[in-house]
């Protein structure tokens, strides 16, 4: 099976450098590592200077808001054009365990021709790590699982609610991707596009599966929860989602931001409190 890695990025150069190092240690190696630069002119030189030889850069024009959905689609289209028959989407924050691609290949073979997305394990690394801590042995000690994720034992796969789909570490065949239609590019900026992809998967008769293998380690970075700095795009994308599927995504965030005054809601439509009328 020819499996390509897809990473979308803007900024986060230190995270990408570490990821490139860890990708070089993968066994087996990816068919290609497609790095999609969302308007960041430094990415091409960074990947070319690494010397792995698997990196292929796709450059998108700068935009006011990050085109996350379109970037993932561009990455998969490029991988498919290079001959990949399966893809792994791996966020730039994530460091892949050495056996990640082998784990995914075995899971995809088990699933067979079913329309399916497999969500690998993600362990979150703490703040304050030094460069000497980014070793395979040390991240195993420091990484912690997310409370909301199901962790099957051994090589078992457990069927999941597609509303839990989060694309930081997932795999699918290119055939599944094409059946689903990829990500909806009307989502721009932060929020909603992953949940929409899960609904598109379900609508195509597909399913999502948790795996306790195919592990990646999420590098720490400052976050705001809920991400109120993205209130405008969250409101816009939530309206797109509800118009398509009849319910709200990101419900916890939306309700919290409504209560804090960052969002308003009128006539069923979400709006950032600072948006012009």
Automatic annotation (TrEMBL):
<dbReference type="Pfam" id="PF02709">
    <property type="entry name" value="Glyco_transf_7C"/>
</dbReference>
<keyword id="KW-0808">Transferase</keyword>
<dbReference type="InterPro" id="IPR027791">
    <property type="entry name" value="Galactosyl_T_C"/>
</dbReference>
<protein>
    <submittedName>
        <fullName>Glycosyltransferase</fullName>
    </submittedName>
</protein>
<comment type="similarity">
    <text>Belongs to the glycosyltransferase 2 family.</text>
</comment>
<keyword id="KW-0328">Glycosyltransferase</keyword>
<dbReference type="InterPro" id="IPR029044">
    <property type="entry name" value="Nucleotide-diphossugar_trans"/>
</dbReference>
<comment type="pathway">
    <text>Cell wall biogenesis; cell wall polysaccharide biosynthesis.</text>
</comment>
<feature type="domain" description="Galactosyltransferase C-terminal">
    <location>
        <begin position="167"/>
        <end position="208"/>
    </location>
</feature>
């Amino acid at each position: 099976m020819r499996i390509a890695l897809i990473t979308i990025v803007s900024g986060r150069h230190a995270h990408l450098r570490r990821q490139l190092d860890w990708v070089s240690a993968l066994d087996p190696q990816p068919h290609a590592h497609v790095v999609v630069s969302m308007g960041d002119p430094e990415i091409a030189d960074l990947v070319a200077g690494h010397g792995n030889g698997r990196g292929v850069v796709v450059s998108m024009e700068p935009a006011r808001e990050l085109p996350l959905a379109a970037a993932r689609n561009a990455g998969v289209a490029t991988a498919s054009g290079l001959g990949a028959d399966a893809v792994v989407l791996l966020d730039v924050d994530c460091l892949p365990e050495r056996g990640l691609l082998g784990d995914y290949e075995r899971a995809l073979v088990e699933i067979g021709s079913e329309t399916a997305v497999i969500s690998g394990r993600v362990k979150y690394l703490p703040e304050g790590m030094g460069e000497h801590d980014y070793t395979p042995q040390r991240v195993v000690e420091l990484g912690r699982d997310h409370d909301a994720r199901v962790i099957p034992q051994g090589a078992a796969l457990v069927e999941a609610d597609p509303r839990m789909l989060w694309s930081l570490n997932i795999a699918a065949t290119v055939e599944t991707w094409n059946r689903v239609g990829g990500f909806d590019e009307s989502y721009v900026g932060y929020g909603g596009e992953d949940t929409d992809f899960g609904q598109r998967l379900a609508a195509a008769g597909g399913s999502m599966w948790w795996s306790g293998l195919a592990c990646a380690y999420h590098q720490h970075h400052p976050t705001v929860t809920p991400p109120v700095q993205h209130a405008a795009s969250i409101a816009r994308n939530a309206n797109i989602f509800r118009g398509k599927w009849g319910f709200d995504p990101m419900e916890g965030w939306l309700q919290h931001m409504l209560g804090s005054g960052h969002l308003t809601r009128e006539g069923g439509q979400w709006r950032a409190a600072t948006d012009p009328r």
